[in-house]
Design goal:
single chain; 55 residues; three-stranded antiparallel beta sheet
């Protein structure tokens, strides 16, 4: 399942349409434009760290 997170207010939420993987243009909580990203899973974060350490 895709989850989004706002970089400004840290609000976390799921899309209304579960098939939608595109972050909204603004946070539905704080209304900040361009602040919403796809939240990485723990597995994705560990993989990213492993990749950084190897290089």
């Amino acid at each position: 399942m895709v989850r989004f997170v706002c970089q400004k207010c840290t609000f976390r939420f799921s899309p209304r349409n579960p098939e939608n993987r595109d972050p909204p243009s603004k946070c539905p909580y704080c209304d900040t434009p361009g602040s919403v990203l796809i939240e990485q899973s723990a597995e994705e974060l560990v993989k990213d760290i492993d990749d950084i350490i190897e290089h």
